[in-house]
Specification:
Elements (H helix, E strand, L loop, with lengths): L56 E2 L4 E3 L2 E3 L4 E2 L13 E6 L2 E7 L8 H4 L5 E5 L5 H14 L5 E6 L5 H7 L9 E3 H7 L2 E4 L3 H14 L5 E4 L3 H9 L8 E7 L3 H10 L10 E7 L5 H11 L4 E4 L2 H13 L4 H16 L4 H23 L2 H6 L3 H27 L2 H11 L13 H11 L10 H20 L4 H23 L1 H5 L4 H27 L7 H7 L3 H10 L28 H5 L2
Parallel strand pairs: 7-8, 7-10, 8-9, 10-11, 11-12, 13-14
Antiparallel strand pairs: 1-4, 2-3, 5-6, 6-14, 12-13
Helix pairs in contact: 2-7, 5-6, 5-14, 9-13, 9-17, 10-11, 10-16, 10-19, 11-15, 11-17, 13-16, 13-19, 14-19, 16-17, 17-21
Length: 593
């Protein structure tokens, strides 16, 4: 068990008896009516309950601001997790009948960064993988805009090839912003540990030992907690341990931040957690970090809940699931007589084009409403839902038991002998290059069967996470928003490999491992059921149409600004995964980027 420090964490589990009172507040991008904070006499952080049974408050009416209309239930339960910030404004929003606290971001809040980051003079960004270039550059730019002289430094192995890229992004030895990993850790007040998960698993005893007393360990993934729990270890009691986890891969975090310089508040949503608060201000350090990297809104979670939903999600619809879906459908359609070009358009292009845009702006149910053949959609949905959910339940429980964490660590240990194989190399992806070159967005077809399969997998993932006790904010971000606003646009721009391999090693390994499972179950079970006219569960259609997740998705999507990502490739952004120098996994890289 993880030892609880003497000072209670600032993200706390609220007792069921707390009531909230309504107040009126204004916000430039408010999506729901805002409510008063609950009293601060909360219990220590504990396991999240599936559904809070707190006493209800009366929710506000539907509000339309920005690009989406938010629909609220008449009543909502009290939140499980409080956000005990002393600097930023927290809001209690109604998400499909459940209350959740959030903190909004935006560049207008940069003026509060000096107070939130008081006592922090040096920020160490350790690593240079998917997240580090984005978060390091975003943080540096925000601090400059806030007029602060806090130094953002990158820590890498002297032999790492990533040093050259860090220099191109403005981090140099001459000004002290680029140095050896442990030198940077030792002098940093906030250590943003963004090396690979496998490297964290191997190096955490030395990393923790190198940190200054009273400093803050910042994580963007709860993976390390799972490793330490398996090892029977705990964090040092004299440091803060916080998490800020953007709900998108690093290149999206950077690109939307850059676009946000013209459109205020643009960015990728993030979850945050305070696992350990030794100094009494860990919450505001974490929220300052989240706002500085451009999060439009930040919601509360725990390290354990984050790593379960994150590792699971990327193996599901975010990466592995969508890969298995398009491969299986492409083969099916070509066997049925479609040309390779039409099969690609009716699978990949259909999903990354009109389906993605519709879900992003209107939600999953709107896909059903727009398809030309609703009967065909529902036939595919009903046949695919349980085969996908079967895999998703297995995957979640593999993560929950920490088997999947051990699998990642062992895979990285084999990198010297077995580096990751390429993805996106089958014949369909060669066809895709031609299709993209000749693409006319308005002509991309909406295939009802493809839509049904994709929505079935996404809804099965949503239902799995809800049944496992995750909040709607976490569910919607890990299963929907990250897919349509961060990841799918990269596959739309340059294909599967550019989406998968611009993610972390943990995500890349998981996608490769689980995509074939979705491919197999769909072909061997779902499509056979369709072709043999097997009787489908008659309740599945109504469960889909009436799922409260549709309200939650609408509410969560409304909390981000109306900015669609403009995909960018280059130094400090998405990498060219076809380059011979691109890292496909080696033991040195896994140890520390």
């Amino acid at each position: 068990p993880v030892r609880t420090p003497a000072i209670a964490p600032c993200t706390t589990l609220l007792p069921r008896s707390i009531r909230t009172r309504r107040i009126n507040m204004s916000s430039a991008m408010s999506a729901t009516r805002v409510f008063a904070a609950a009293p601060a006499n909360a219990t220590k952080l504990g396991a999240r309950k599936a559904v809070s049974s707190g006493k209800p408050y009366v929710a506000g009416k539907s509000v339309t601001r920005g690009r989406r209309s938010v629909v609220s239930n008449a009543a909502s339960s009290a939140p499980d997790l409080d956000i005990n910030t002393k600097i930023f404004e927290k809001e209690l929003v109604d998400v499909a009948g459940e209350g959740e606290y959030i903190v909004r971001g935006g560049r207008h809040l940069f003026e509060k960064l000096p107070e939130a980051l008081a006592g922090i003079n040096t920020i160490g960004v350790i690593g240079w993988g998917s997240q580090a270039p984005a978060q390091g550059q975003n943080f540096r730019d925000s601090l400059k805009e806030a007029g602060m002289d806090v130094k953002v430094c990158v820590g890498l192995r002297p032999s790492s090839k990533s040093n050259d890229e860090a220099r191109e992004c403005g981090f140099t030895e001459e000004d002290g912003t680029l140095g050896e990993t442990f030198d940077i850790i030792a002098k940093s007040d906030l250590v943003m540990l963004l090396i690979s998960d496998a490297a964290q698993a191997k190096m955490y005893p030395r990393i923790l030992a190198a940190m200054k007393p009273g400093s803050t360990l910042g994580l963007s993934h709860g993976f390390l907690l799972g490793v330490m729990q398996s090892d029977g270890e705990t964090f040092r009691e004299d440091i803060n341990v916080v998490l800020v986890a953007p709900k998108g891969m690093g290149p999206s975090v950077r690109r939307l931040y850059e676009q946000g310089k013209d459109v205020g508040g643009s960015g990728i949503n993030a979850s945050f957690a305070v696992h350990q608060d030794a100094t009494g201000n860990a919450t505001d350090i974490a929220l300052g970090w989240s706002i500085a990297i451009g999060s439009p809104f930040t919601f509360a979670t725990t390290l354990e809940s984050e790593y379960r939903s994150d590792i699971f999600g990327e193996r599901g619809i975010l990466l592995g699931g969508v890969h298995g879906i398009v491969e299986s459908l492409y083969r099916r359609y070509t066997k049925q007589g479609m040309t390779p070009t039409d099969a690609f358009k009716n699978t990949v292009e259909c999903i990354t084009g009109p389906i993605t845009k519709t879900i992003s702006t209107k939600g999953i149910k709107a896909v059903y409403e727009m398809v030309p053949d609703k009967k065909e959609f529902m036939k595919a949905y009903a046949a695919s839902y349980m085969p996908c959910k079967d895999i998703l339940y297995e995957c979640y429980e593999e993560v929950e038991s920490k088997n999947e964490i051990r699998s990642v660590v062992m895979a990285c240990e084999r990198f010297d002998t077995f580096p990751m194989g390429k993805v996106g190399t089958s014949s369909m992806w060669a066809v895709g290059e031609t299709v993209r070159a000749e693409r006319v967005e308005e002509d991309i077809p909406v295939n009802s069967f493809t839509a049904g399969v994709y929505c079935a997998c996404m809804m099965a993932q949503i239902d799995t996470l809800r049944e496992k006790g995750h909040s709607y904010s976490e569910v919607c971000n890990e299963s929907v928003i990250e897919a349509v606003d961060s990841l799918n646009p990269y596959m739309h721009a340059k294909g599967l490999a550019f989406m998968v391999d611009n993610c972390s090693y943990t995500a890349r390994l998981g996608s490769r491992k689980w995509a074939p499972r979705f491919d197999y179950n769909l072909e061997q079970q779902a499509y056979v059921a369709v072709d043999t006219d097997a009787k489908a569960d008659p309740e599945l259609e109504q469960k889909f149409l009436n799922n409260p997740a549709h309200i939650a998705i609408a509410n969560c999507c409304a909390l981000r600004p109306s900015v669609d990502i403009s995909v960018k490739f280059g130094v400090g952004s998405a990498r060219d995964v076809t380059d011979e120098k691109f890292k496909m996994g080696d033991k040195a890289t896994a140890d520390a980027k």
